[in-house]
Amino acid sequence: MAGHSKWANIKRQKARVDAKKGKTFTQLSRAIIVAARNGIPDPAGNFQLRTAIEKAKAAGIPNDNIDRAIAKGAGTYKDDESNFEEVRYEGYGPGGIAILIEAFTDNRNRTAADLRAAFNKNGGNLGETGCVSWMFEKKGVVLLAGEVEEEKLLETSLEGGADTYELMEEEETAGAEVFTELDNLNLLSQVLQEKQFSVKEAEIRWIPNNTVAVDNPEQARSLLKLIDTLESLDDVQNVTANFEMADELIQIY
Fold first, then answer.
1. Which candidate, 80, 77, 74, places its Cα nearest to that of 34?
2. What would the DSSP string read from start to end of 154-188?
3. 226: closest CA among 132, 137, 114, 106?
4. Is 92:99 a contact under the CB 8 Å cutoff?
5. How many CA atoms lie within 13 A of 138 on its CB side?
6. CATH number, residue 53
7. Which of 90, 103, 119, 136 could form a disulfide with 124 if both were Cys (CB 3.0 to 4.6 A apart)?
């Protein structure tokens, strides 16, 4: 089941870029709305919602704002006249790197214009829907924190119906990522928690079927700047790309 996988490596690289900035209050609030809309509006029975609320609280978002976001997602907020929808955008970064953007917006034209400007200014271009999504596969991912005993993880992953897992042994990011089909994500998360694993987060992620190596410093700098610019937009929830990059190039950025 285990084995060398670039999935976790890509995620860790992206996390290093993300660590340079925090999500805005707007992005965190919209993550709560999305989670409440996709499941029940009760964090006790909605792991995605519980994770979104924890991130919002860690960022200092007031409880009133959190409750309002949950109500908007559940459709019970009376004064909410906005009509948000989830939209996926696709494009190419420097060197033809495939990029998927998941957005939550009440104005498609505004969001598309902002994304197009970000691509154009950083050596990429916004494409048509479907131009790169065929290069990715949607998976459920459970993130585990802390030291992980691989034999126990293998046994539990099989019991929980996981497809594969990837250990992360760096001291600052020790843990593991366990991958599964979308409809099995909640079950897998529950099984891992029952077996006393420290479940940090459960999420849905686009996984590239193949990756492209980026070894040119200038291309790396432009690509990371583009991703950073895209992720800074309030309408954007997630950005995924199919690149692989050496740590040295990330540190240059």
1. 74
2. HHHHHHTT-SEEEEE--GGG-EEEEEE-GGGHHHH
3. 114
4. yes
5. 10
6. 1.10.10.200
7. 119
Say how far apart CA 189 and CA 186 lie, in whole Å.
5
Count how many domains the chain has.
3
Kindly state the tokens that stand for 85: 């929808």
**64: containing domain:** 25-74
**Gap between the Cα atoms of 212 and 46, Å rounded:** 35
Residue in the structure block whose two tokens are 């084995």: 3
For residue 149, give the CATH number of its domain: 3.30.70.980
Question: Does 197 lie in the same domain as 148?
Answer: yes
What is the sign, positive or negative, of the torsion defined by CA atoms of 109, 114, 115, 116? Answer: positive
Whose structure tokens read 């660590």? Answer: 19
Which structure tokens are listed for 140? 């459920």
Q: pTM (2 decimals)?
A: 0.79
Segment (H or E) for 221: helix 217-231
pLDDT digits (tens, 9 = 90+) for 61-97: 899 999 988 988 887 777 666 677 889 999 999 999 9
The residues, any chain, with a CB within 8 Å of residue 121's CB and separated by 6 or more, are: 229
